[in-house]
Amino acid sequence: QVQLVQSGPEVKRPGASVKVSCKTSGFNLTSYDINWVRQASGQGLEWMGWMSPETGYAQHAQKFQDRVTLTAATSIATAYMELKRLTPDDTAVYYCVRDDFYSGPAWGQGTLVSVSS
Amino acid sequence: DIQMTQSPLSLSASIGDRVTITCRASQTFVSNYLSWYQQKPGKAPRILIYSGSRLQSGVPSRFSGSASGPDFSLTISSLQSEDFATYFCHQTFLYPWTFGHGTRVEIK
């Protein structure tokens, strides 16, 4: 079955970077776009960007334009989201989401990133 | 950006009640790009409905989705104890993806 399994929680200092992985199984990663969404505690969901593992093309939300990098290693069926220059406002749960018109979005379990000095 | 205005933001209901939650999109799009989720504290969103009205495998049939123009609705026909949670809509028609702010369903 379709699965997206994300890496474990992270604790970072302000100014650091974090890289979250999303290991996929049950489907061919190169056939689907992967999106990243985050949710701060008690807040709504915020879309960060998407990428095509097949082509490597990525598009980001304007507010993350110069801080986020979306990549994929298709040989190991894994997508990545790297966020740089972290601030406490980046404390949130980060989700990878497979976009599929025919069966609806499929979500990873989420990765908590905590940013604190 | 497509704004998804969800209402109500919270509601109190009793077991067995019929509950309807609505999302109004700031622009019309085909319902195939609208999903509904349930989220419980500390958990990832669980997809209930995709493509506007298609029930995700394993989701009880008391959940249903519908669309009329820019308005999308999620209905729970007979609320059960395990349904007390937050629900939100999600459009994937255009980037950026946008979400409703969520409806918290509480026990009356």
Polypeptide structure, described:
The complex is a heterodimer of chains A (117) and B (108). Chain A is mainly β. Helices cover 0% and strands 49% of the residues of chain A. Chain A has strands spanning 3-6, 10-12, 18-25, 34-39, 45-51, 58-60, 68-73, 78-83, 92-98, 106-107, 111-115. In chain A, strands 2, 4, 5, 6, 9, 10 and 11 form a seven-stranded mixed sheet that branches. Chain B is mainly beta. Chain B is built from no helices and eleven strands. Chain A binds chain B through residues 35, 37, 44-45, 47, 50, 59, 61, 95, 99, 101, 103-110, and chain B through 32-33, 35, 44-45, 47, 49-51, 54, 56, 88, 90, 92, 95-102.
How helical, in percent, are the residues of chain B?
A: under 10%
Q: What string gives the helices and strands of chain A in order?
A: EEEEEEEEEEE
- Average pLDDT of chain B works out at 95
Ends distance of chain B = 36 Å
Tally of alpha and pi helices of chain A: 0
Helix content of chain A: under 10%
Put simply, the count of helices of chain B is 0
Count of DSSP strands of chain A: 11
**Structural class by sheet pairing and helices of chain A:** mainly beta
N-to-C SSE string of chain B, H for helix and E for strand: EEEEEEEEEEE
Number of strands of chain B: 11
Major β-sheet profile of chain B? 7 strands, mixed
User: What portion of residues of chain A belong to β-strands?
Assistant: over 45%
Task: Give the structural class of chain B.
Answer: mainly beta
Which residues of chain B form runs of ≥5 with pLDDT under 50? none
Radius of gyration of chain B equals: 13 Å
Uncertain segments of chain A? none
Q: Which assembly state applies to the chains in this document? A: heterodimer
Q: What can be said about the biggest beta sheet of chain A?
A: 7 strands, mixed
